Amino acid sequence: MSRTRAGRTLAAAAATALLLAAAPAAQATQSTISGKISPNKGKPGTPLALTIGFTITRENGENNTLRQVVLDFPPNAVANGAKFPSCTPEAINARRSFNSCAKGSLIGRGSLIADVPAADVFNVPGKVTLFNGAGGKSITVHIYAENPVLISQAFSAPLRKTGGRYGYKLTANIPDTLQEIADGWFAEVKRFSTTVNAKWRGRGYIEAKRCPKSGRAPIAGAFDFLREASPTSALGFVTCKP
């Protein structure tokens, strides 16, 4: 090879390397988490309504079917599940209704938006209903949607008290049948929001403990996926008035 040709080859290779280095990196799946309480100021023992929401944004064609969601809640409130009646996923799934759930076990409601790309269905609305689990050690989560297939299923999400920066951790392992809702049809949640605001015999399921001096109580979410998407996490705050 001549020096001239060799020089041109090296120059082309160098230019290609520079272009690749300058190209923006492919973005991974992103997530956000937010929360609010009402009332946002109250003495210890005040019943609270807590709203938690998260979003999942798919990038570069990744399949982001949720496999697990872990939520960390602030230490600035107390959960009184042990004082509330309960309802199990088995009771709901056996009858495909809430008729067998004890009065007072319903603790909250919410909604979700999901895509099912393989079925060419997008922005599907779903309903979320929350019940207190046995002994207050879990939350029974029921998901209902009608498109592209009928979904009505409850599952248990363990709730445990923790220490340090957060006060409680909720771990939701999504059942296989809520991941692949029909043969080859995988659901991809984009938005999810629930509000827990239950009271039973004068007590709130969530009651105020203390508001930090900063006026911001930390929350966090960690999201793991079934297929291509890498795990993602998000941090947020619940604002309150000290």
Provide a descriptive summary of the structure in words.
- The chain has one domain (27-239).
- The protein is built from three helices and 17 strands.
- The protein has helices at residues 3-22, 89-95, 176-179, and strands at residues 30-38, 49-57, 66-73, 77-79, 106-116, 121-132, 138-145, 151-161, 168-173, 180-182, 185-186, 188-196, 199-200, 203-204, 206-208, 216-225, 232-239.
- The chain has an eleven-stranded antiparallel β-sheet. The protein has a two-stranded antiparallel ribbon with strand order 4-15.
- It is globular.
Which key features would you list for this structure?
single chain; 242 residues; mainly beta; eleven-stranded antiparallel sheet; two-stranded antiparallel sheet; 3 helices; globular; disordered N terminus; signal
